[in-house]
Amino acid sequence: MTAPVFVVDEVPAGPEFVLDGPEGRHAVSVKRLRPGEDVVLTDGRGRWTEGVVKAAEGKDRLVVAELHEVHEEPEPTPRITVVQALPKGDRGELAVETMTETGVDEIVPWAAARCITQWKGDRGLKALTKWRATAREAGKQSRRVRFPHIAEPMTTKQVAALLTTADFAAVLHEDRSHPSEPLATTELPTSGSIVLVVGPEGGVSPEELEAFAQAGAKAYRLGRSVLRTSTAGTAATALLLGRTGRWS
């Protein structure tokens, strides 16, 4: 298994580094790391280094030695952004977690017209904080060193503006009265950016579809079955990663 990942404010250049605070506590008291084990330290923005545990002190101090040179993972291409309509309950965190583990680069919360959940005031700030914390933890768990960016919530108008900047823009939509193409066979760019819109459980409204179409985003389908909003983004991200060669 690859070495566990821990997040630091700034990736150390060596020769030793003390990991403390919440990350140190997780390493010492939860992971129970011992001298001689490998670890990865990252800022979550692509910079990272490897080291070896020298000592575990108390409950929250891990001394890391033999630090290697600092590496920087390049920005992936094409960059994949998923505009995620707000799901009910904790299914939003589930969507963020699985998309992060799969390899998405950015997630944009979207207050779609048919969303039951609405982020307003303190509730919205709390929900956004949860999404960002989920992305951070899922990024560590999946051994990523470049975590996905969780953007500020967007309105339909803002999403449409985002779609105009993409090299490929798509809306996941399945409706007998509204023809859609299979995402599995459409032509995709090999560089630039891909933006994918995932609607709420009630679907994307006709007005939203029209706004997105004017922004250059066509309707696409994944397959014969209809996925929940909390899983559609993950399935689509996996498909795109495979088709663009990022999973090669």
TrEMBL record:
The keyword Cytoplasm applies. GO terms for molecular function: methyltransferase activity. Its EC number is 2.1.1.193. The keyword Cytoplasm applies. It catalyses: uridine(1498) in 16S rRNA + S-adenosyl-L-methionine = N(3)-methyluridine(1498) in 16S rRNA + S-adenosyl-L-homocysteine + H(+). Keywords: Cytoplasm, Methyltransferase, rRNA processing, S-adenosyl-L-methionine, Transferase. It is found in: Cytoplasm. GO terms for biological process: methylation. InterPro entries: Alpha/beta_knot_MTases (IPR029028), PUA-like_sf (IPR015947), RsmE (IPR006700), RsmE_MTase_dom (IPR046886), RsmE_PUA-like (IPR046887), tRNA_m1G_MTases_N (IPR029026). Residues 75-240 form the Ribosomal RNA small subunit methyltransferase E methyltransferase domain. Its main location: cytoplasm. SUPFAM superfamilies: alpha/beta knot, PUA domain-like. Residues 19-64 form the Ribosomal RNA small subunit methyltransferase E PUA-like domain. Specifically methylates the N3 position of the uracil ring of uridine 1498 (m3U1498) in 16S rRNA. Acts on the fully assembled 30S ribosomal subunit. Belongs to the RNA methyltransferase RsmE family. PANTHER family: 16S RRNA (URACIL(1498)-N(3))-METHYLTRANSFERASE, RIBOSOMAL RNA SMALL SUBUNIT METHYLTRANSFERASE E. NCBIfam families: PRK11713.2-3, RsmE family RNA methyltransferase. This is Ribosomal RNA small subunit methyltransferase E. It comes from Streptomyces xiangluensis. The lineage of its organism: Bacteria, Bacillati, Actinomycetota, Actinomycetes, Kitasatosporales.
